[in-house]
Design brief:
Catalytic activity: DNA(n) + a 2'-deoxyribonucleoside 5'-triphosphate = DNA(n+1) + diphosphate
Pfam families: DNA_pol3_delta, DNA_pol3_delta_C
Helix content: 55-70%
EC number: 2.7.7.7
Protein name: DNA polymerase III subunit delta
Largest sheet: 5 strands, parallel
Number of strands: 5
Distance between the termini: 71 Å
Number of domains: 3
GO molecular function, one term: DNA-directed DNA polymerase activity
Radius of gyration: 25 Å
């Protein structure tokens, strides 16, 4: 069992999965689950420990060495890793987890040139990438999910990959694989994010009474004020980005890094807004962000006032 692997990127869930996959591969290749694994942070392990770990074994025992946080390794450690990677001892699998940056940035490129098998684990930042992630999660669970269902999951859970993965698994278990957008909303109806989006949607179309009522119910239910304020800010910022643009929502979605349905929704909402009202709403949500994080003496009142004032901007 030999092999050089580079886990490249800093999306924690993907990094963990990639390392687990390589370890599984090593055990399968060795035909036993008892393959010794040494897992250390490359930036903290001493050079003498590295030399010992990466030196040939007298008995050519099968083993796996996982070096995490390799981007923070010092010069001497980098030299040892590069030297070992060029001529791995018999029976040793070396797995290097590297963010792609850091003071040892060149190490990643060097390992690629050495023929390392690269496992991409870059941060997922675009909405389209998160949608793809959710689809892949359901596909791995042998369940097909349509676009509406994927969108409902993202709206209900948010952007954290670990939470999205857990939600997908739980939804499949709870529904027996019979997925739909309605089922997602039913299972996640208590989420603060969902309630926040519902309040924000009412506010940005000028439904003053509806937004105020929904907000009161959410606050009575103990929903975090920061989450509710963030949902309002996101709705306003989306209108600010989409409003000045025109054209096919599918083309704009690619440019803005948003799903097409969100662009279409914002286009309809933006028709009710003027440049001045959007600017005032942006000012309101910026002030609200500070208010719910401690700047206001009464955060509840600040949130309720901001929701009403945003809705009244449309109504006027």
């Amino acid at each position: 069992m030999t092999g050089l692997h580079l886990i490249l990127g800093d999306e924690e869930l993907l990094v963990e999965r990639a390392i687990a996959s390589v370890l599984q591969q090593a055990r399968a290749s060795a035909g036993t689950a008892d393959v010794p694994v040494d897992r250390l942070r490359a930036g903290e392990v001493s050079t003498s420990e590295l030399v010992e770990l990466l030196s040939p074994s007298l008995f050519a025992d099968e083993r796996v060495v996982v070096l995490e946080a390799a981007a923070e390794a010092g010069k001497e450690s980098v030299a040892i890793i590069e030297s070992a990677a060029a001529d791995l001892p018999e029976g040793t699998m070396l797995v290097v987890a590297h963010s792609g940056g850091g003071r040892a940035k060149s190490l990643a490129d060097h390992l690629k040139k050495q023929g390392a098998q690269v496992h991409p684990c870059a941060k997922v930042t675009k909405a389209s990438e998160r949608s793809d992630f959710v689809r892949k999660e359901f596909r791995a669970l042998r369940v097909k999910a349509d676009d509406d269902t994927v969108t409902a999951v993202l709206d209900a859970v948010g952007s954290d990959l670990r939470e999205l993965a857990a939600a997908c698994s739980q939804l499949v278990a709870d529904t027996g694989g019979d997925l739909s957008a309605a089922a997602v909303r039913r299972y996640h109806s208590g989420k603060a994010e969902v309630k926040g989006f519902a309040i924000a949607d009412k506010a940005v179309v000028g439904d003053v009474a509806g937004a105020a009522e929904a907000l009161r119910w959410a606050m009575m239910g103990g929903e975090p004020l920061v989450v509710l304020a963030d949902a309002l800010a996101e709705a306003v910022h989306t209108i600010a980005r989409v409003g000045p643009l025109s054209g096919d929502p599918y083309r704009l979605a690619g440019e803005l890094g948003m799903p097409p349905w969100r662009v279409q929704k914002a286009q309809k909402q933006a028709r009710r807004w003027s440049r001045d009202s959007v600017a005032e709403a942006m000012r309101l949500v910026a002030a609200l962000n500070a208010d719910v994080k401690g700047a206001a003496a009464d955060a509840d009142y600040a949130l309720e006032t901001a929701v009403r004032r945003v809705a009244e901007l449309v109504a006027d």
